[in-house]
């Protein structure tokens, strides 16, 4: 039996597509959203059966309560607590790991799909003198690895517009575009986007559960932020401001 060959050798094409859609200051005026007048229409079907999806949220159920109150801030954040090892450990266990298992706790079938988790801390309280904020860190083998110190001006230069003043830290999800097709061939580009969606949803839900405000933000400058993270081959796919 002949099996379909899924290898279409379009790696260069999806890499070119990705970099043709990156954001930069000189392109920003052309990358604004356009308002589209698209009136909502309802299609009727003969003899259709429909019912209202009514359900009373169980306020005393922590999971349902968190889901019902999920939201992302528009321009401001309001967390006044300390960003420390305990909070970040709790955040990562809930959002990514699931009790230190060597897989991730969201619907990716346990696969990793080469998505990396990076942290940019504006504030981070730690007894070690090495942790002088702002710092760049990343997750490796279920550990938060300190990479380097930076300046908040350098972080700001990686975004279009001003970052809200009360941001405590930023999570940037990234991947190596040259490696994602090694295991899953050309569908790898779709899989990392799916993975980032799962991870982003968890970031926002866990932030809400822990009392952190969150802003999913795509208005970063790709090449500047990639340079700031300084991780060989990694390109940023999405960012989240928390505080």
Keyword list:
alpha+beta, 243 residues, NADH Oxidase, 6 strands, globular
Describe the structure.
This protein has seven helices and six strands. It has a domain at 78-242: 3-Layer(aba) Sandwich (NADH Oxidase), CATH 3.40.109.10. A hairpin with a 2-residue loop joins strand 2 and strand 3 (143-149). The radius of gyration is 20 Å and the shape is globular. It has helices at residues 11-20, 62-68, 85-97, 152-156, 181-184, 188-209, 222-229, and strands at 115-121, 135-140, 143-149, 169-176, 214-217, 234-242. It is α+β, with helices and mostly antiparallel strands and 243 residues long. The chain starts with 10 loop residues before the first helix and ends with a strand. The longest helix is centred in the last third of the chain and has 22 residues, at 188-209. Helix 3 (85-97) packs across helix 6. A six-stranded antiparallel sheet has the order 3-2-1-4-6-5, sandwiched between helices.
């Amino acid at each position: 039996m002949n099996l379909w060959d899924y290898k279409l050798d379009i790696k260069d094409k999806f890499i070119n597509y990705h970099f043709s859609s990156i954001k930069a200051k000189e392109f920003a005026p052309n990358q604004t959203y356009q308002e589209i007048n698209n009136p909502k229409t309802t299609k009727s079907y003969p003899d259709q059966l429909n019912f209202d999806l009514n359900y009373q949220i169980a306020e005393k159920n922590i999971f349902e309560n968190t889901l019902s109150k999920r939201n992302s801030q528009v321009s401001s954040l309001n967390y006044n607590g300390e960003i420390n090892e305990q909070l970040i450990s709790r955040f990562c266990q809930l959002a990514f790991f699931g009790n230190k298992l060597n897989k991730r706790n969201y619907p990716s079938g346990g696969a990793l799909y080469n998505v990396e988790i990076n942290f940019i801390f504006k504030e981070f309280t730690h007894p070690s003198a090495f942790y002088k904020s702002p710092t760049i860190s990343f997750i490796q083998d279920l550990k938060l690895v300190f990479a380097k110190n930076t300046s908040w001006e350098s972080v700001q230069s990686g975004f279009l517009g001003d970052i809200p003043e009360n941001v405590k830290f930023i999570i940037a999800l990234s991947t190596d575009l040259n490696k994602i097709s090694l295991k899953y061939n050309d569908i790898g580009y779709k899989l990392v986007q799916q993975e980032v969606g799962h991870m982003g949803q968890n970031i926002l839900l866990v932030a809400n559960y822990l009392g952190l405000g969150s802003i999913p933000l795509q208005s970063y400058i790709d090449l500047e932020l990639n340079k700031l993270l300084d991780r060989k081959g990694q390109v940023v796919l999405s960012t989240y401001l928390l505080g």
